[in-house]
Amino acid sequence: MKPLIRISSRAVPLMRENIDTDAIIPSREMRSVSKSGLADGLFAGWRYLDQKSREPDPDFVLNQRRYSGAKILVSGNNFGCGSSREHAVWALAEYGFRAIIAPSFAPIFRGNCIQNGIAPVVLDAEDVRDLAIQAEAGREFALDMNLMTVTVGGRVYAFSIEDEARTMLMEALDLIELTRKSIRVIEAFRAEQKRRRPWLYV
Amino acid sequence: MIQSPDQTGPRTLAQKIWDEHVVVPVNEESELLAIDRLLLHERTGGVALKSLREKGRDVMAPSMVFATMDHIVDTFPNRTDDTLMPTGKAFLQTLRDEAVRSGITLFDLDDPRQGIVHVVSPEQGIVMPGATLVCPDSHTCTQGAFGALAWGIGSTEAEHVLATATLRVKRPQNMRITIDGTLSNGVTAKDIALYIIRKLGAAGAKGHIIEFSGDTVRALDMEARMTLCNMATELSAFTAIIAPDHKVLTYLKGRPFAPDGALWEQASAYWLTLKSDDDAVFDASYQLQASEINPMVSWGNSPQHAIAIGEKVPEFETLDLGDGRATYDRALEYMGLEATSDLGQLPIDGAFIGSCTNSRISDLRRAAAILKGRTVAPGVRAICVPGSTQVKLEAEAEGLDKVFRDAGFEWRESGCSMCFFAGGESFGPGERVISSTNRNFESRQGFKTRTHIASPETVAASAIAGRIVSSVGLENGA
After folding, report:
1. Are residues B419 and B368 in the same domain?
2. Does the distance separating the beta carbons of A164 and B264 come in below 8 Å?
3. Same domain, B206 and B153
4. Distance, CA of B452 to CA of B298 (rounded, Å)
5. Which residue out of A28, A109, A193 would a mutagenesis test of the B interface target, given it has the greatest number of B Cβ atoms within 10 Å?
6. Which residues, including other chains, have CB under 8 Å from residue B368's CB and lie 6 or more apart?
7. For an interface test with A, which of B96, B236, B416 has the most A Cβ atoms less than 10 Å from its Cβ?
8. Tens-place pLDDT, residues B65-86
9. CATH of domain A6-171
10. Are both B110 and B72 inside the same structural domain?
11. CATH number reported for the structural domain that contains residue B185 in this entry
């Protein structure tokens, strides 16, 4: 996982509401016991005209050359709803996305983004619509995690994200290592809990 | 700042369980929360355990971790590790190997305790009131029916729990949905859930813990409560919870992993104290009357696209769900419908009873009561997949398998099966399927398959009629 501080790139507008994780990575595309090898299956149901031959659907945004190499996705409300499969985020990250801009995210998906170096950027619906038009026009987006802004064509869109998520993204932190520093406190808590609620330990 | 920890003020049930589990605040927003139970399955469990091991980390408390085979496993009779999906076998074998190495409990393919994770956890007494329970599966909210704080997580978070028996989490907001009154004949917990999702929208409870209350909810049996809580994730909720009562105790008593003897007395006395304070503050509240609710069915590609059976497909202008016109048009096109289409006039190709939403013994009994002495309409492929091996055996002991088979249903081994065709089995493109599952997403049950979600009663009645009809409608010859 690479730290995410500033990125600039074009953005892909995919303006549909309630895009679910089955659409992001269909079950049939999760073929191996692994966190990689998933980029090819990203949005497979929409991206390919034929699921076997993988003939690209020229109408689908990801297949349009002007968006190649884009690191930012702009989408509709409740992005990432449905199944908790982290494969959806692994597929987006492997494809090259580092940020998703939407009016809201489903909670598990949002958490998965932060664990995998993708910034879930929440802006209000009007701003997101505006940004989709800018993305459509092929404008360059600049995302700054320090300032918590997205800048496009001179206009600055400010967003907020909680400190811990921001730090995790900016420093590519391994949370397990961080938590393990509190292992004594955890052990003490568990010993006390075992005394008070022993049935949890049967 | 973190809300609440004023533990003397009025609190919701969820806040009380949360406060009980705070190991230490980690910063101004998040807390390190102790996790009492972690459940895993073969789709994400193997990869989480393997990834942890490869980083040289041990499972901190293996006795609190339980795994089952449900997501990818084949559901045909005489199954083996092979699945229709060519690489499915590796998921099963990896979980099996990693379970042995790490010392966690696995309900393997040939284990009578095997089944869908949210069916077997209650069956085995793994979930209990007041506990924190997580699983890398969005429908973990199902288990909130027991008064546990149970929620779905990602794989990386599952690794965090394996390594530390904790999670770093931000305190969610609280919502109360109160339902009072008596449900009409043929109206079930599934219909309540679809009614609420239609009313609030698919992001209507975004990030909240929903507490379901009211006398309608109290009157539901445990399996119906599980169905209601199961669908909370379709509102983008953090989870759902119902205050534990004597029904929870009756259900859990004597289950293999539930406490017994003096410990049971101690635990159950504590469990019955768990409820929201009368003056607890909820961030949002809704009140519904049971009499408003009719048998429901979905028409589009989101669970919020639901209507009462008999209602016409709504016109865009009458919807207030925040969807754009393009999303609405796309849903109609995908489903082969038009505004004001009458779903009841369209022939169906498939009927599916199964999933963590509606595959428990009471679901199968109610469906079988409708199927008894009747036959599935010609051209309809009908499948029943019991939620667990226990449910299957119980159903067979009651002769329900014979009722399903005689009516023309396939009778399967337990698993998640065609709820999302993870094992590679699916319905066909363009096929219209009535399903007791939870998601009518595009291509969820098969590439371009058109899924309509409803109660198991509606699925059974529709399988007989060959078109979408409620159980009451079937009886009345509608």
Report:
1. yes
2. no
3. no
4. 5
5. A28
6. B395, B400, B403, B404, B460
7. B236
8. 999 999 999 999 999 999 998 8
9. 3.20.19.10
10. yes
11. 3.40.1060.10
